[in-house]
Amino acid sequence: xxxxxxxxxxxxxxxxxxxxxxxxxxxxxxxxxxxxxxxxxxxxxxxxxxxxxxxxxxxxxxxxxxxxxxxxxxxxxxxxxxxxxxxxxxxxxxxxxxxxxxxxxxxxxxxxxxxxxxxxxxxxxxxxxxxxxxxxxxxxxxxxxxxxxxxxxxxxxxxxxxxxxxxxxxxxxxxxxxxxxxxxxxxxxxxxxxxxxxxxxxxxxxxxxxxxxxxxxxxxxxxxxxxxxxxxxxxxxxxxxxxxxxxxxxxxxxxxxxxxxxxxxxxxxxxxxxxxxxxxxxxxxxxxxxxxxxxxxxxxxxxxxxxxxxxxxxxxxxxxxxxxxxxxxxxxxxxxxxxxxxxxxxxxxxxxxxxxxxxxxxxxxxxxxxxxxxxxxxxxxxxxxxxxxxxxxxxxxxxxxxxxxxxxxxxxxxxxxxxxxxxxxxxxxxxxxxxxxxxxxxxxxxxxxxxxxxxxxxxxxxxxxxxxxxxxxxxxxxxxxxxxxxxxxxxxxxxxxxxxxxxxxxxxxxxxxxxxxxxxxxxxxxxxxxxxxxxxxxxxxxxxxxxxxxxxxxxxxxxxxxxxxxxxxxxxxxxxxxxxxxxxxxxx
Length: 588
Known about the structure:
Blueprint: E1 3-6, E2 23-30, E3 39-44, E4 47-51, E5 67-70, H1 73-77, E6 82-86, H2 92-95, H3 98-105, E7 109-111, H4 113-126, E8 134-136, E9 142-145, E10 148-154, E11 163-169, E12 172-176, H5 194-203, E13 207-211, H6 226-237, E14 242-246, H7 252-264, E15 268-271, H8 274-286, E16 310-314, H9 324-329, E17 342-346, H10 355-367, E18 371-373, H11 388-398, E19 402-406, H12 410-422, E20 437-442, E21 448-452, E22 457-461, E23 464-467, H13 471-482, E24 484-491, E25 502-506, H14 514-530, H15 540-557, E26 564-571
Helix pairs in contact: 4-8, 6-7, 11-12, 14-15
C-alpha cells in the first residue's frame, strides 16, 4: 500500500481557533434527495476537503438550462480552508461541476488515472486556458492532506477505476463508498476490495456514508458480464442486419463487451458521437479498453462495409436532442441513414425525467422501419449500484458507529437507513440529511445535526451562470406557458405618439376576431401614452408600465392567458447609449 504526503496550503493560525479544531463536520452540498450533483465536505478545524463535484441534468421545469451544479458559496466563503477536491470516479454526476468549481477554488485535484483523463478532456474543452493541479492516485494509495489521511479503496462500478475513500481524522475515521457494487466477475477483473473495507472496520469507523441509489432493490445487482450473453444472442438474431448500439459514452465496460462480441461475429465497429469517440480514444490510450485498430471503421467509410459486417456504437440512449442516435432517428445524420436493414439496441436504462425523449426516439426509429430492442426484460442494461444485500454486506464489514445514506432521492435515503438499522446500527446513530445540513462530531459528545450552510442549485446555460430563483428561468417559464405580446411605440420628444403602434405576438392564443382584439389593444395603449403628452422629458419606464397595465386589462376582459406584455419604447432625437434601458423587461 503506497503512501504519499500532499503539501497542503498552510497558513498562520488565528488566535482562539484551537477549540474549533476539536470539531469534525460532514456537510453535503449536493447528492441528497436527488440523483446527481454529488458534492460532500469533510471539515476539521480550519481545514476542509471536498469529495466529488458533480452535475445534474434539468427537467422540463427549467427550459433551456444545460445542467445544474451545486451552490459552492460556502466553499468560496472559506476558500483558504479548502485543501483539495477528491474524485471517486469519472461519471458526470461526480465530475461535471468541475469546470465551474475548480477555477473558483484553484486547489489540487485527486483521482485515479482514467478519472483524471476524462476530467482533463472535459476541462480542455470547457476551459482550454485553465491549468488545474492534478494528483494521480491508485487504489491502495494513502495520501496525507493536512490533518486528513486518505486511503483510496478499489470498488467495482459501471466505469473503471472507481474508488471509495477512508478518511482518517483526529476525531475518527470516515468511510465514503462512492458509487459501487459487489460484482464478483467484473469485466476488467477489478473487484470491490472487501478486505480493505474490513480492515477499516477493524480499525474503527466513526461514520459511514454510502451509495443509496439501489437501496429499494432487493437481493444483489447482477454482474455487468451478463450483457455479453445478451449481445451474443442479439447478434445471432439479427445476423443479416446492420447493428446500431446506443449506450452511455462513459461505460467503458459496456463498450468492451460490444467490441468483444463484434470480434466473435467478425464485425467491424464504428464509433459516432463526440463524447463516445473521445472516451474510446482515451480508454484505449490508457489501456482500459482492448480494441484492435483493424476493427475500427472511420465514420466516413461505413458505407463501404456490408450491413452484416458492421456495428455502429453511438450516444443517445437518453434521447439527448443532438446525440448521434437522435439525429439518425430524425433522418438528419450526415453519415448514417437508417431503415429496415438496421437493428437498434438501447443498452441503457432510462434516467427518470428522460422517458418522453427516449420514447419519442424509439417511435421515430420504428417509423423508419428499424427493429428496436429496448425492453428492460431483455437484459440490455445492468446497474452499477449495489442493491440491498450488498449494502448490508458493506455495513457489516465497516461496522460504523454512525451512518449517513447519500446519493439518492429521499425514499432511497430512508430505505438505506432502514437497512442500516436491520444490521444493528442504532436508530439514533443514523442521520437522514439534506443538502446544506451540518453533522458535527465533538470528542466525548453525541454528534448533532447543527446548523445549515448555503446549498442548492446553480443553473448553467452555455457560459452563463445563475441561481435556481433566477429571473431568467421565471421569464422562460412565462414565455413557454403564455407567450409574448410586444407593443412597439415611437414617441416624440414631448411624449406624443409619432408613428402608429406596432403589435406583434409569439405564442399568444387569440380567437378568430384577432383584428378586433388588436384594435382594442392599440386603443388601450394609445390612451395610456396620451397621459404623458406634453411632458418635458419622456420617462420610458413609466410609459412602459402604463402600456403593460392597459394591455393586460384588455386581455383579462377577454379571458385570455396572462401573456408577457413587452413594451418597446423609442423616443425621436434621443441617443440610446449603453446604459439606456430602451426595452422594458420587468414583467411583473
